[in-house]
Design brief:
Length: 234
Amino acid sequence: MSQAMPPAVSVIIPVLGEARQLDSLIDHLLQIADGGHVEMIVVDGSPDGESIKAVSRQGVTLLTAPAGRARQMNAGAAAAGGAYLLFLHADTLLPPGAFLRIEETLSGTDCVAGAFDLRYGSERPSMRFIARVACLRSRLTRIPYGDQAQFFRRDYFEQLCGFADIPLMEDVEIMRRIKDRGDRISILPEAVVTSARRHEKEGILYCTLRNWTIITLYMLGMSPEQLVRFYKNH
C-alpha cells in the first residue's frame, strides 16, 4: 500500500478565544490551497480547548498547549509534517497563491525564512498609513512581525530550536537570530490582510504608539518579561 504524500506546507494557527472565526479561516485556507495538499494545525492555549471545540471542518489537526503564542506555535511545529512551516494568526487572511509562493521562495534557494507584506482590513487612511510604514520597516530591517505570516524551512526552524519561550516578541526574536546568523529572509510583495480590531478597540493612536514603544524598548535591551506588562490581555 502506497503512503500518502506529505504536505508541502503546514499551517500552524495559535488561538485563544477565537472560536467564532475558525471555521471561516479554515474555509479561506482551503480556497487558497486550490486543491493542493496543505496541512492545517490549530493549537489552542485554553486547557479545555474552548476554541477548537467549535471547529466543525474536517481534515484539521486540533491540539492544546500551554497558553503563550511561542509555546503554542512550537507545539504545532512539533506535530507538523510539511517541509515548510507557516505560522498564521487567526485574524489574518493569506493572499491568493500564498502556498505556491512559499514553496517557490524556500525551495532551491538560499532563503530560509520569510513573510508577506501587510495590509489591514480597514479603509481608514490611518490604518493604510500604518501598514505602509510596517512594510517599509520590515523591508529595511529584514525583521517581519508575526502578523505578516512568518514562514520557515522546517529543517532550519528545527536547527533554531523554534521560537524562544518568552511571553512577547517571539516573532522579532527569531528573525533577529536568523539575521545574526547571516541567513536570508525574504519579504514577499503579496500582502496578508489582518484585522484592525485591536487598533479600533484600544484606539488607533494609542495602540500604534504602544506597539512602537514596545519594539523600541525591546531593541534597546528591555526583556520581554518586563515589556509584557505594557500589553493588555497578552
